[in-house]
Amino acid sequence: TKSFEKELICPACKELFTHPLILPCQHNICHKCVKDIMLTSEDMIPDAGSESSNQSSPRFQSCSASVDKTDKSSRSGRKRNSQPSRTTMFFCPGCQHYIDLGERGISVLFRNFTLEAIVERHRQAARAATAIMCDVCKPPSQEATKSCVDCSASYCNECFKVYHPWGTAKAQHESVAPTTNFRPKILMCPEHETERVNMYCEICRRPVCHLCKLGGSHANHRVTTMSTAYKTLQEKLSKDIEYLISKEDQVKSCISQLGLLLKETQCNSERAKEEVSQTFDKLINILEEKKSAALRTIEASKNLRLEKLQTQAEEYQGLLENRGLVGYAQEVLKESDQSCFVQTAKQLHDRLQKATESVETFTPSAETSFDEFVMDTRKQEEMFGALSLFSNDLPIPEINEEQSKIYDKAVISWDSPGMTDLCDMYVLQYCKLKREEETKMWQESEVHSKSKVISDLDDSSCYAFRVRAYKGSICSPWSREVTLRTPPAAVFRFLFDDKCGYSSEHLLLNLERTTVRSRAGLPLLLSAEHMHAGCYMALDYIFGDTGITKGKHFWAFRVEANSYLVKVGVLSSTKIQKLIQYVHDMTSPRSEQDSGHDSGSDDAWVDASLRFSLVTLGMEKFFIPTASADPKEAGDPMDEKSIGFPLPSCMGICLDYDNGKMGFYDASSMTCLYECEVDCSDIMYPLFALMGGAAIHL
């Protein structure tokens, strides 16, 4: 048994199994170890229902069923005052995963009698020289010759005859060789203690009794008879053993290959260490050379400056009385011969005059500051800080372009293929792309999740993003760069106005005033023929609650794909009042009887005012209007012909108030689809018009 002794070791106490229990994950653990772990964990969790309870214990968790399950059970007939079920989560030390033990905890676990018998045989082989003594002999005890399975005791020959006399029920007890491991003859169900197990659940892979199948936790599971399960599992186990025995040579070859791989790994790791050491030595040598050169330059500059200052100091020293130039001049004054004096005094006077000037305007001959020798190493420090070991074992993150969005902020999301728990953190880098700059100035941020929100981005700019994973000091290569464009102008924030021109009969507005819906009805569909004739009165209008008086602004929205017809754009406050009044007059019951109303001229005004301030969306299309050859012909409004394109998932509008221009964008890629001129002589408001079943989300 020495060859498989490690199979008999408990993963918790690291000793031979004692009364092992089978966990649902098919690992074994001592019964005492299970209790110790649970008691230790209960001490860590004083009150599972309190706020201070530690629900994330690494060993044991006791938690109530989720709210969804509770609601579901209440709908299925659970009593109002009944408590929610509690489940026991046990941390298996074998597989390092949490195991759900259900409501009854360890009471549903089976005792592994087969493993227990193997452990006992191993113990007996280990203590073969140690005899098992009789349990009932008076001291001194005799060596046991047999053990009774029914009595769970060992006896010598004399005591066995005394306690198992002929003609009694005990005489029928089963006796075996001396042992200390007694196990029951019949395996009983842990959930129904009076029932023996006689079936095998193929779903849970455990023995069950007939009550478990009739109305217990295995009622809807597929079961088989114990004899069938015994034969099936015995055949599978025998085949597996035969297969492994037949592959013994292949296993030995694998072991030899693994031995070579161990040596190769050791050699390669030493080689990698040597290469890394050489790389850093090269960098250190370069730094040492740069350091020596810098110190030599500073030393040379110092010597030159000291020489200049020393010379200047000596010159000023000569100006003192009886010293240098002054002493010499005093001696010249003693000359009595006029011609000789004049010959010498002229040159001396020039020198004294220069000395006088230098005293009056004293300036040091050299600077004492060495500020020009300060080195800026910020870029180099960043480069050295970014030095990391690359490893192919770490998965390269991939930026998810569908989930990564950019508006007034950027939300960057990425996925990490393979094992997600390999990484300690991620580093996200981003930079603004500029054509005139060849090198990219990356900014970076450490992230401990798989998404990051980035603020303070410039308008109308392209940004590149990339990410890498880190495990300690080891990092993965950079991901593929993803480029996103910011809106062409500052984001304009507003809500739908629920007062000005809002029709609650035809439009539905959510509480946040960010979504508006129009309901398709028979009157609206009957009036659709007016739309084709150029009349805008069949539309239901809604405006933004904030106006624009200057600058450049951008806002985005989404039109539901099944929307019938939507028009979007801007309109001035003056025209909004006229439009609301005209819509009110046209929908008033008196409008058809008012013979003095010039509906034709009003229709022309509405068409001329709104035609190119709005674009049409609907039926999963985006329609770009085109003007006729002579749009200024009197009495004939522009004949609009529409060019249809697929409707983007998100639309955007950019209003340049100062230049009187408005652009319509695909907000996902920030691509301009259509641009037109608008009259911005008044306060401009976002305008939306809906017809039939349509919906707009800001």
> Globular, elongated, flat, extended or rod-shaped: what is the shape?
flat
> Low-confidence runs (pLDDT<50, min 5 residues)?
44-84, 525-535, 591-597, 628-640
* Main sheet overview: 8 strands, mixed
CATH class annotation of the domain at 507-528 and 536-585 and 606-625 and 642-697: Mainly Beta
Indicate the percent of residues in helices.
25-40%
List descriptors.
Herpes Virus-1, 698 residues, zinc ion binding, transferase, 14 helices, 8-stranded mixed beta sheet, Immunoglobulin-like, 6-stranded mixed beta sheet, ubl conjugation pathway, zinc-finger, alpha+beta
Care to describe what's here?
The protein is α+β, with helices and mostly antiparallel strands and 698 residues long. It is 31% helix and 23% strand. Strands 23, 24, 25, 27, 32, 33, 34 and 36 form an eight-stranded mixed beta sheet that branches. Strand 7 and strand 8 form a beta hairpin. The radius of gyration is 47 Å and the shape is flat. The chain starts with 19 loop residues before the first strand and ends with a strand. GO terms for molecular function: ligase activity; ubiquitin-protein transferase activity; zinc ion binding. It is found in: Cytoplasm, Cytoskeleton. Belongs to the TRIM/RBCC family. Keywords: Coiled coil, Cytoplasm, Cytoskeleton, Ligase, Metal-binding, Microtubule, Repeat, Transferase, Ubl conjugation pathway, Zinc, Zinc-finger.
